[in-house]
Amino acid sequence: MLRWVGLAAAIGTALLLAGCADKVEPSPGSAAPAASSSSSAAAVAPSAAAAETIPDHYDPARDPAADLKAALALAATDGKEVLIDFGADWCPDCNVLDKLFQSEKTKPLLRRSYHVVAVDVGEFNHNLNFTAKYVNLKTSGIPALVVLTPDGKVRVATNDGSFANARTMNSDQVNAFLTRWAPRS
Predict the structure, then answer these.
(1) Which member of 4, 116, 122, 148 has the lowest number of beta carbons within 10 Å of its beta carbon?
(2) Which residues pair with 156 in a beta bridge?
């Protein structure tokens, strides 16, 4: 009897797996489904919530154009500026700037005045077409910051490399930059 129960369970599992496999087969002409969990797929999907947060790292799976579109849509409704932060997780200066952005001194200023979009540039081999629309990585280094008006016009881009040595900066210096380019109320 026990052998029949085990066999029935195995057959049921096989049928269940076969049914699930049919659900993920791409239809002709469509892209293959992503091999990721639903939670990581949700993290990649652009959303207004993504533009509401201050990213604490550069996610290579993010779509910077979609994230910027969401941030600009929010900025159009609330009048905040959009701050694009170009960098990479391997970069010490980028990591220092991220910590400053998360600090008690800087985070409230960012939340009050900006929608932040973090763009991963990898090892200067990722999102380069998007990045080139806003900064010249040859002169800016990383991290590089760009402030956009709610209608998408560039107010400032740190093409002079002013944040490329962020490890020497403190919250007061970062806040001075952010305050200078914050929207006027």
Answers:
(1) 4
(2) 147
Residue range 4-17, pLDDT digits in tens: 444 444 444 333 33
Domain 45-181: give its CATH superfamily.
Glutaredoxin (3.40.30.10)
What CA–CA distance (Å, rounded) separates 14 from 177? 60
Distance from C-alpha of 142 to C-alpha of 94, rounded to nearest angstrom: 7
The number of beta carbons lying within 10 Å of the beta carbon of residue 55 is: 20
Structural domain boundaries in the chain: 45-181
Q: Which helix (H) or strand (E) holds 57?
A: none
**Which pLDDT tens digit goes with each residue over 126-135?**
999 999 999 9
CA–centroid distance for 151 within its chain = 20
